[in-house]
Amino acid sequence: MDTALLVVATVAFVMQMFAWAVLPNAKQVPEKSKEFSSIGDESKSKVTV
Amino acid sequence: MSFLSILLQTTPPAPKIDTGDTAWILVSTALVMLMTPALGFFYGGLVRSKNVLSTIMHSFFSLAVVSVVWVLWGYTLAFGPSVGNAGIIGGLDWFGLNGVTGINTNYAATIPFPLHMMFQMMFAVITPALITGAFAERKRFKAFAVFLVVWVTLVYCPIAHWVWGLQGAKGWLGALGALDFAGGTVVHIASGIAALVCALVMGKRVGFGKEQMEAHDVPMVVLGAGLLWFGWFGFNAGSALGASDLAVNAFVVTHVSAAMGAITWTTLSWIRQGAPSVLGAAAGAVAGLVAITPASGYVNASSALIIGFGGGAICYFGVVLKSRLGFDDALDVFAVHGLGGIWGALATGLFATKTINPAGNDGLFYGNPGQVLIQLAGVGATIAWSGGLTFVILKVIDLTIGLRVSEKEEQAGLDGVLHGEEAYQV
Prior knowledge:
heterodimer; A: mainly alpha; rod-shaped; B: 0% strand
């Protein structure tokens, strides 16, 4: 079981590493009001910015 | 055989204070204490600049008020001799710390009894402070002060007794076999559910959904998150109540889960928003820390990676869901502490193994599926008690004192209106 969990954990990390490689470097410089204060258009959340 | 040798063979050794254990729990207590002002910075940076002092005051005042409550009646209600040996609430035997001296072998055989009291005090201090993020920027200070005392007494103390009570009888959840090493149910689910109820009862802030309510100081948020991460080593590794291999394991898995939570939230924000969010990294670390809290004394590092991954992802999508549902949990307490705490409690039932802690139990992945059901019972009981009592407390306060400031006061900002001070002279 320990080995299986370690494989799952490793995959969870490595997949993210690959995602970083293909994700954009950064979004266009955002309008201050939106991109740094919400998740897309659905959030006024403070935490997620 | 002489009388003396018979006596030596039959008398158990007297409990003795271990200086290493005592030193570690002293340090851990101070670490956990630091978490509450750190939370003040974390929350303070997230609100608008006109409300930063009132938000920091919520945490700082909790440190003062709950400490006094704990000494007077909090500790005895939570950890005192169980009334009727029912495991529901402690009696008043230790009111004002009466009898809290020497060593109490029921709780910790190698540290002074008052140190156990102090360590647990810091947990009681931070739990209601966590809730304050839900009603930030709109709650009257006197309503908050009363809420603080009543909530700790009626909600926190009983749940702590259910899970951690050992005097006279085990708390009923502890007796059932529920595993909560450092407060996943007692601290995070209880506060997260209370936060949800607060947000629903108090309603939205003026202008919510119509105007931007940005975090006014992101570096302050990251500073707060960093100090929380630092303090969490005391929270989880200190819960071993000794300088032991169990404490070291808790230290390791705490760090690992926080790291994976930060990574996962950052990746998700990057995918969905097109940029790796700094605030997202801070929130993700906290989500990972919340999730590992109940499991930290029962799981290994591989499991901690998965728990941190789950914590980051579940809490992130909890925030997305909250936004779509439209309620104003201002600083996402329910998403991070409620959902993160529930995930952590259930994950403990999945990943726990006796190879880490022989005094614990195995989880589903180690051949004991029943542990998940026990964890579910703990989650359900905590949700029901915290949710129900918080609702009643808020309604009573609303009818007597009033929960919210006026619309005009809210627009002016609570720092000036409630405290007569301004954070920044710019």
